[in-house]
Amino acid sequence: MRSHLLNDATAESYRRSVTEGVERVASRLAATRGPFTGVTPAELAPVIDAVDLDRPLGDSSAALDELESVYLRDAVYFHHPRYLGHLNCPVVIPAVLGEAVLSAVNSSLDTWDQSAGGTLIERKLIDWTNGRIGFGPSADGVFTSGGSQSNLQSLLLAREEAKTDDLSKLRIFSSECSHFSVQKSAQLLGLGRDAVVSIPVDRNKRMQSVVLAAQLEACRAEGLVPMAIVATAGTTDFGSIDPLPEIAALAEEYGAWMHVDAAYGCGLLASPTRRHRLDGIERADSVTVDFHKSFFQPVSSSAILVRAGATLRHATYHADYLNPARTVAERIPNQVDKSLQTTRRFDALKLWMTLRVMGADGVGQLFDEVCDLAAEGFALLAGDPRYDVVVEPQLSTLVYRYIPAAAASPEEIDRANLHARKALFASGEAVVAGTKVDGRQYLKFTLLNPETTAADIAAVLDLIAGHAEQYLGETLVHA
Ligand SMILES: *Cc1c(COP(=O)(O)O)cnc(C)c1O
Question: Ligand 1 atom closest to Cα of 302?
Answer without folding.
Answer: 7
